[in-house]
Amino acid sequence: MKIYWNTLPPRIRAFLVFLLGFALMQVVFFAMDGSIKQVDILFGVYVGGFIVYFLARWGFFSIRVQMVLPNQELPIYEKFRKNPGKRRFGPGEPAEFIDVKEADDELLPDDRVIGVNFNGEAAAYPLAAIGVREISNEEYDDTPVVITWSPVTYSARAFLAKANNQAINLGRHTHSVFNSPAMPDENGSMFVQFIGQAVSGELAGWTLEQIPVTTTTWAAWKEAHPNTEVMSTDGGPEADIFENYYANDRNGVHSLKPIDKRLHGKEVVLGLDIKNHAKAYSYTALIDEPIQEEDLGRTPIVVLLERSSSTASAFLRTVNGTTLNFRGKSKNPQRRAEETTASGEGERSDYEPWLVEDIQTGSTWRAVSGECIEGELKGSQLEMLNGMTGFWYAWSRFYPQAELFGEFSDAAEQ
């Protein structure tokens, strides 16, 4: 019955609710007086209309889309909500890309960027630039890739832009699911940005393949990738326009109360989903314990957090058949409060990368990129995993009951 109700058009559902409210009032009046007067009918219309208005404001009659959450079997029907206010139009594509020297004139060392290193090519997308674009359809060595950013859920995602053996281009969203943008392709299919799943159109049910991204600072990214290209901020805002939103307590455009109380809704987490085993790592907890080693989905992994750039990265910790264990080698200083803005930015100009070493060979590795720069394994590269950043209120909706490192109870015990 619930599934049938969710599949009805919104206007039909609203009309049925109106009739129910109207009919109930007439039953009440008849039970009281033994008759129904004209004023009773008018009052019933008023009550039915008021109920419909109230529920509409709450989103009860929103269009519902079918979606299967990651690692779940049964579908859910979730609200497909339109963005409030007027539609914003960002800069047109294609975007202009510049080199490191030019980017130094546009960006501060601690400006945050989304970094992608794929098929031997590296590119950085400043939040100030991609925040107003939302998406960037690219090619990395002839492979179509789409880079996406949702400031509302604080989620950076990159996907192979192929579905059902055809290349796709995604556009700016007008609707959202769980506050995550539903990005349309040319044929009207809508892909939910947080998980890359299509919830409408001919590709409904299809999930795009993710590729790793890094959310870091400009200084940290260019140190690890000196030959990177950079999306220019020219023509757009000089800073991330969502700074105030990051700092306030509102959970999304369509405010969602966290259903999982293990963290505050706006806590930033790094999520992993490996072989149907999902786990989130709280940035706050990683500041205290910046090296986390475990087997997730029977896969040996390591999660590292470089404090100075607020960069969390996850890697497969097996190299040449050997599973490595890591410890810090250089200092990993915490930021001072006066150096930090709402999104983790500040004015630290003396960036130095955090280096770790493996216990087995004593080789030295960059924590941000997983590149071995010294020792027996020099030149090796840890395989970066698809670490998914996001606010806890969003992650806990898409990955309900997932494991969590750093929940309130853990902090209390320490």
Structure, described:
Helix content is 23%, strand content 32%. With 414 residues, the chain is an alpha+beta fold. The protein has three domains: 2-61, no CATH class; 97-231, Rieske Iron-sulfur Protein (3-layer Sandwich), CATH 2.102.10; 255-413. The chain has a six-stranded antiparallel sheet with strand order 1-2-11-12-13-14. It has a five-stranded mixed sheet with strand order 3-17-5-4-16. The protein has a four-stranded antiparallel sheet with strand order 6-7-8-15. Helix 2 runs antiparallel to helix 3 (38-58). The longest helix has 24 residues, at 10-33. The radius of gyration is 25 Å and the shape is elongated.
Strand ordering within the main sheet: 1-2-11-12-13-14
Structure classification = alpha+beta
Shape: elongated
Kindly, what is the distance between the CA atoms of the first and last residues, rounded to a whole number of angstroms?
A: 48 Å
Strand residue percentage: 25-35%
Query: Which stretches are low in confidence, meaning pLDDT under 50 for 5 or more residues running?
Result: 337-347
* Range of helix content: 10-25%
Quaternary state reads single chain
Q: What's the β-strand tally? A: 31
The domain tally reads 3
**Secondary structure tally, helices:** 10
Largest sheet: 6 strands, antiparallel
Kindly report the average pLDDT value. Answer: 88
Computed Rg: 25 Å
